[in-house]
Amino acid sequence: MGTAISLDLADDLPAAELDELAGGVFTWLREVDARFSTYRADSEVCRVDRGELPLSGASADLRAVLARCADLWKATDGFFDVYATGRLDPSGYVKGWAVQVASDRLLAAGAANHCLNAGGDVRVRGHSSTGQPWRIGVRHPWDAMSTCLVLTGTDLAVATSGVYERGRHVYDPRRGVPARGLRSVTVVGSDLGLADAYATAAVAMGPAGLAWLAALPDHRHAVISDNAHLHHSTPLP
Q1: What are the Cα distances from residue 237, in Å, to 88, 137, 194, 228?
Q2: What are residue 186's DSSP bridge partners?
Q3: Which CATH class is domain 5-232?
Q4: For 123-181, how does the pLDDT look when each residue is reduced to its tens digit (9 = 90+)?
Q5: 220 in helix, strand or coil?
Q6: What is the model's pTM?
Q7: How many C-beta atoms surround the C-beta of residue 234 within 10 A?
Q8: What are phi and psi of 69, to 5 degrees?
Q9: How many contiguous H segments (helices) and E segments (strands) does the chain have?
Q10: 44-66: average pLDDT
Q11: Do residues 195 and 219 touch, judged by C-beta distance below 8 A?
């Protein structure tokens, strides 16, 4: 998926069961990468984008994801756009969605206490192995070795979209150029796919994303602008 992925299973379960649960998570994420990667020429996304595979012949997961992305395009006034760069790229939703699905499966399998982190998109449930709520660090946008915020909670979906790791990869779809104004956007909610898409859309909006996030129901946010100002909802977790 083009990023580092870590999994912390905090339930007191037999080692063999934990290994099986972890194996299931990484098998699923490899499947998602094979299907949705924009870096793999043989992925479903790339084949659909090139016109080699009709959408009607694509997997149910791909069709469902693109339908959800179409809904998000409407909900964000067009700022969440899978064609913003000129080619099909649903990555701004897929990574969060994939982690959310994996977390839901862990919960259904009896692993009620876990933290799954895919490159800053984090889904936590229950408690850590210390019995305390999970602590989620948000990377400092100018110092890769530091955090600028720490969130705590027992049931959180935390998605961060920024320009400090992959450069200005989020495009303003209306102007067709890399978005500017917001260096890091973190959105906190209950569904990681949705939080991921909202964070991406806010970055694409630039400074106007601040007012849009403030009016977003059932979500909280923390934003660091290009001029190093911190804006956040109250309270953060």
Answers
A1: 34, 12, 18, 21
A2: 160, 222
A3: alpha beta
A4: 999 999 999 999 999 988 888 788 989 999 999 999 999 876 666 678 888 888 888 99
A5: strand
A6: 0.94
A7: 5
A8: -65, -35
A9: 6, 11
A10: 97
A11: yes
